[in-house]
What does this fold into?
Amino acid sequence: MNETEFLKTYDPSAFERPSVTVDLVLLTIVRDRLRVMLVERDQQPALDEWGLPGTFVGIKESLEDAAVRVLGTKAGLPSRRLEQLYTFGAVDRDPRMRIISVAYLGLVPWEVAQAVVTDTRDFADIVADESEVHLSPPGSDEWLELTFDHSEIIATALTRLRGKLDWSDIAYDLLPDAFTLRELQIVHEVILGRRLNKPAFRKRMLDTGRLIPTGQRESGGAAFRPAELYRVARG
Amino acid sequence: MNETEFLKTYDPSAFERPSVTVDLVLLTIVRDRLRVMLVERDQQPALDEWGLPGTFVGIKESLEDAAVRVLGTKAGLPSRRLEQLYTFGAVDRDPRMRIISVAYLGLVPWEVAQAVVTDTRDFADIVADESEVHLSPPGSDEWLELTFDHSEIIATALTRLRGKLDWSDIAYDLLPDAFTLRELQIVHEVILGRRLNKPAFRKRMLDTGRLIPTGQRESGGAAFRPAELYRVARG
DNA sequence: CGAATAGTGTCTATAAGACAGTATATC
DNA sequence: GATATACTGTCTTATAGACACTATTCG
It folds into this structure.
């Protein structure tokens, strides 16, 4: 079918349109493991199965507004930076009907994420094995099957995150306002899946000029020298 | 409006859905300038104004298939690599109705692009001034106004292209099968908007191990030493 | 003081810019 | 041989890894 024939058969005001959703990949780090937020689906199809928090996009609602709405209502989280990830548009990705999903990525410090866990909302461990991504419930060795193409969406998020880690300030979204260089290094190591050199990492981070020493030290009463707390200059 | 209230009012099978289009940013390089393909719109609104080639996505057509269809029918180009760029979903980006557009990026050697220029399909010079992007018809100093948010889409494409240049093989899409290292360097310089060091560039490119010497030399009868022609190992 | 981590100095390896030199085509 | 560009060798600089060392806090 060429363009002329297609236009004859496709009048956008008369013919069927796809539905559009947004889905959120909300990542957090617990100890040395990445986790992603999953919610139990409250409607058909795949009722009671786990998937990414998402919603249909309203006809007078921008994609960003829809993503922010999901963040608040389905994820239960306060406003924070979301970045558009990719748009998934395979014809059969949802069995009920044609749905195109615009995925957004957000990173959440565990201190914040922890507070919103409920019976139907939790974080699953991400086990990234080369290009494959598997999920398992926290404290379990079982694997979790996700609905639709949600595993593929999470794999895309992980690839994007690794790619941006070095030149963007996205990693700071996983940390509280004040953090130590050790915590920042652990975030980088968990995302990249490998150990990093301490002096080189420190120099590289401090040379960005974006880390502001607070003059405060970490507390906790451990039997070792407490580290300086830093903030990041946003913008 | 919280999620529960929203779901009561939004039944995806009954309520209005957005239309979805794909738009293509097709870039080429002529001498030392980037150009983007524009087509004269053949329908309302903005009839006869210039914009990116695009189409509505069919209800049983994947996003990629729609992009490939535009490439063939509206751009008149043979099949080539297209990469999803970004999805633009502001509510008022199109005056007729709610349209969400998924933008795709493709790079075309001028040797190929040149052949498909017609009265209603041409390439405009991109004048990138910091974060602003302006377009002018070839051989003119005037500026061209694009319909909708198409200038923003082109700016996004340029940013993406610069970001991927170093670690991906996307630049080779702008060159014919066989090319010289000088031509490859010019492609990089035009995209980045700055001059590069020749020995360093050569070493970096050859060290990737992806450049295969053909044993052929460039021809053309110019009064200087002809350069070796290379191919790139795809994959 | 012992323990454990914070933080730094030094050496080495690698990569890229600057610059100038040699090589090789055509005219 | 003149010319213009291809291609390379060398020096310098910046960055990161490896490794070990000193510093600091708490029990």
Remarks:
- The radius of gyration of chain A is 20 Å.
- Confidence is low (pLDDT under 50) at residues 6-10 of chain A.
